[in-house]
Design goal:
mainly beta, three-stranded antiparallel beta sheet, two-stranded antiparallel ribbon, GFA family protein
């Protein structure tokens, strides 16, 4: 399962390549969307529909972010082979409100 970081829009500063970002939205989905680089296909950051936060794929970072997970979401739809998480991080079956 991919790990994502969330931040406020004013906390993200593009160094370059923002013009190469392509957004994909799954038709009919309330929140699902992906953004990727048109040049290399790597997943990249994208803003929420309401503009309140930016989702940053953790795998796109050059360095460790310096923080630990604060929550796990969509646990109700995880694969059967996923034995579950045994740490103390709060888990949610859906998107927390």
């Amino acid at each position: 399962m991919p790990s994502n970081l969330f931040c406020k829009p004013e906390q993200l500063h593009w160094l370059g390549g923002e013009d190469r970002v392509q957004r994909f939205r799954l038709q009919g989905a309330a929140r699902f969307g992906r953004s990727f680089c048109r040049a290399c296909g790597s997943p990249v950051a994208h803003g929420s529909d309401d503009g309140r936060y930016v989702l940053v794929p953790a795998g796109s970072l050059d360095d460790a972010p310096g923080l630990l997970p604060q929550a796990r979401i969509f646990c109700a739809s995880r694969a059967d082979w996923d034995a579950g998480i045994t740490d103390a991080v709060p888990s949610f079956d859906s998107y927390p409100t």
